[in-house]
Amino acid sequence: MMKKTVLGLASMAMVSVPVSLLTDLQSAQAQTTNCIYLQEVTTGQTSIQKTVSAQGLGHNNWNTDFMVPVGTVFRYFVGRVYPQNTANYQVAINLKYNNNTYSEVFSNSIPMQRFQLYSKSFWTPTYKQPYQVNMNIGSDINNVYSVAVLGCK
Predict the structure, then answer these.
(1) By 3-state DSSP, what share of the chain in percent is helix, strand and coil, each rounded to 5?
(2) Whole-angstrom Cα distance, residue 105 to residue 96?
(3) Which of 10, 27, 31, 90 is buried deepest, with most CB atoms within 10 A?
């Protein structure tokens, strides 16, 4: 059973960036802040596209886990969501630790516009390096989005 550490950041909003700036923003941020894209645990991809399925008894596809590389210490992380539908999205970000605990670092419902990049910077409130970053994203059934996480030194 996982223990939970909660950091109350529900009032913070994600930052929206027009899609035309996406490539420039990714390039600039990676260069100026020494960030790398983390790999999703099952596919090894750095960006995952999902279609929202119905929520029920733990059988949905709302969770996407990204691996934090062993031996690399990150000062902070950046979660990114790129919706293909204008809608409200429920976003929760959790950091998982080796001692079977986790920290919820963000949880909020966010009205998102189609084809705009939403980014949220966060850090570990426990000062421990997580082994995974969990992005839990829900919305109306059949809405499509892409999700990615960066680790920044």
Answers:
(1) 10, 50, 40
(2) 11
(3) 90
